Amino acid sequence: MKINKIADESGGSYIMIPSPEVEKVNPIEYYSNYHIQKSVFLGRELLMLYKIPLLDGFLDKFLFKTAKDEWNEQYKEIMNVSIPNNLKEILNTKRKNEQLQLLRNMTITTEQLFAFIFHAWNEGFSFSQYKAEHHHKGVNEDDLPAMINVEGDEIKTIGKTTLTKGEQKQVIENRKVIIAKFFDKEDEWHCFFVTYDSLKGKESWQGGQAHLHYISDKFGLKREEVVKQLKSGKYSLGSPPHINLTDYGNQPQKS
Questions:
Q1: Are residues 128 and 180 in the same domain?
Q2: Same structural domain for residues 48 and 162?
Q3: Most-buried pick from 80, 160, 190, 217 (CB within 10 A)?
C-alpha cells in the first residue's frame, strides 16, 4: 500500500491513503494489513509531530501492537453486523431471476456491505476491487495539481497547476469515478459497483438516493468484459438492479 504525504505552502502536509486495486484476494487479510499499515504510519506521523522521544525499535512494536489490537476489535464488530438474508442468499443462487427477486427493494448500509465482503470469503468467494477515474473532455492530466479539495465554495490546491480555481472545481464536479467489488468462486462471480455521481446524489434513481448496481455471471456477460467496460468509464450492461445505500453522506471529493 502506497501512502502519499504531500506538503502544502504553509509548511503543513496532507496524507493521502488510497484504496488500491486488488484481485482475488482474502479480504480479511487485505483489510487487516491495510488498517495496520495505515494506523502505524499515522501513529508515527503524530508522534513525530509532537516530538515524543521514543526509541525507534520500541516505537515500531508499540504502534504495531496498538494497530493490531484496534483491528481485532474492529473485526469483531464487523463480524457482528447483521446482513440482510436476501443479500447472503445471492451467493447461493443459480438463476438471474432469483437474483433479481432477492434484490428487489433492497436497502443496506455501507457497514453491511463491508460485513458482506467477509461473509462472502467465508462462503468461498475471493475478493477483487477495481477503480476507474476519467476526466471530462479537454482536461490535460499533466495540468492537474497533486491534490484538489473542494468543500462547498472553498477550493484547496496543493501542487503546481495552470488551472484556475473554477477550472479545478469543474474537474472535480465532472470527473467520472466507478468502484467495483467482485466476488469469485471458480466460474461464478458477483459484482457490486458504485459511481461517485450516485454517492453525490447526481443520478436520477429515487431522487438522488445513493445506490449500488449489481451484476453477475448469470446475466450472460463475461467477467473480463464487465471489468473492461467499468474501467473504461462507459458501460452498457443492460439494466442492473439497484441497491440503496442509506447511510452515505456527501463527502468532500479529492483528486
A1: yes
A2: no
A3: 190
State the pTM of this model: 0.84
pLDDT, averaged across the chain: 84
Same domain? 6 vs 127: no
pLDDT in tens, 172-216: 777 788 999 999 999 999 999 998 778 877 777 777 888 999 999
Strands 211-216 and 242-245: antiparallel
DSSP 110-171: HHHHHHHHHHHHHTT-EEEEEEEEEPPTT--GGG--SEEEEETTEEEEES--S--HHHHHHH
Q: What is the pLDDT of residues 98-113, one digit of tens each?
A: 999 999 999 999 999 9
The residue with cell 493490531 is: 68
CB 157 within 8 A of CB 151: no
What is the C-alpha separation between 66 and 62, in angstroms, rounded?
A: 6
Q: Are residues 43 and 4 in the same domain?
A: yes
- Does one domain contain both 150 and 215? no
Calculate mean pLDDT across residues 26-43. 92
- Examine the domain organization and report whether 215 and 122 are in the same domain: yes
pLDDT at 208: 80
Q: How many domains does the chain have?
A: 3
